[in-house]
Design a protein that fits this description.
Blueprint: E1 2-5, E2 12-14, H1 15-21, E3 30-32, H2 41-46, H3 49-61, H4 67-77, E4 84-88, E5 91-94, H5 105-119, E6 125-130, H6 135-143, E7 149-154, H7 162-168
Parallel strand pairs: 6-7
Antiparallel strand pairs: 1-2, 1-3, 4-5
Length: 170
């Protein structure tokens, strides 16, 4: 799969390059050049969250990662539920607060951590992030214990809640 920089369309990279690089030139985000089509959407929706996620990711990245590695990535990233609950007739809510730090950012943080581990060439990596909210705790937890990946999280002094500070300290 090729991804292109939405600010500079001529910059195209692989999934692995996009994960390692983060942003494109001029701070552009990467977006897939093509989106896969699924013939049986109902069957896909009937799958559990992890299986569905692995199938979608495999379709997006093609043969860049073997199926076993994609399955491992998704299994490790999403080890918590994402239930859909009916609020009323025709209205549903996707609960994204069941992750380890109780923040929806657990989904992105853990997917990022596992993706980076999957495409790593074995060299040391340092990630620098700045936040005033839940991102820090989610990223810290997602990368905790991962070899060869160090994370530095910058917080504005006195601007985060005691709960966030406590979660980020572990």
């Amino acid at each position: 799969m090729k991804l292109y920089n939405i600010k500079e369309n001529d910059e195209q990279v692989s999934f692995g390059q996009a994960v390692r690089q983060g942003l494109g030139r001029n701070q552009g985000l990467f977006f897939p050049s093509e989106l896969p089509k699924f013939d049986d959407v109902d069957a896909l929706l009937a799958e559990d969250f992890v299986t569905r996620s692995a199938k979608i990711l495999s379709a997006l990245i093609g043969d860049e990662l073997p199926a076993e590695k994609v399955n491992e990535l998704v299994d490790n990233a999403f080890q918590f539920p994402a239930p859909i609950n009916q609020v009323k007739d025709g209205v549903y809510a996707l609960e994204l607060f069941h992750g380890p730090t109780l923040a929806f950012k657990d989904f992105g943080g853990r997917f990022m951590a596992q993706s980076l581990a999957a495409v790593s060439d074995g060299g040391k990596i340092t990630i620098l992030t700045a936040t005033s909210g839940d991102t820090g705790a989610a990223v810290a937890h997602a990368f905790y214990g991962m070899e060869d990946i160090n994370v530095v999280i910058l917080y504005p002094k006195g601007k985060i809640s005691p709960l966030q500070e406590n979660y980020s300290a572990h």
